[in-house]
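Researcher: Structure for this, please.
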Amino acid sequence: MPGWAVMRALGLAELSNYTVYRELEGTEAEALAGMLRIIDTFEEAVTAAGRRRQRRQVFRVSERSYFVRVENRMSIHEAHFILAELIADTHTDGLPDTAGGLTETP
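Model: Predicted structure, token format:
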């Protein structure tokens, strides 16, 4: 089965770096559904104490990319999530060692 990663951007614009937020298995549709569950539970609209957040917005940047902004009285939390497909892995049979599929150096 293909491997997927939900990536999360940390930082601001061109200074941001990406980390693997969670790894998923399955088809693209299953991985996308898993990412949407992550987005829906990230800084949920209601806090653990039952207080409603002031505002929670989800923006679709593309089919595999979403931006979440959550405003509270004293803070704003933002996260950019991207669904990425694993296409090369030196430890997984059935996947090439490199993105280009090359396994030997000339």
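Researcher: Any notable elements?
Model: Helices lie at 28-41. Residues 28-41 form the longest helix (14 residues).
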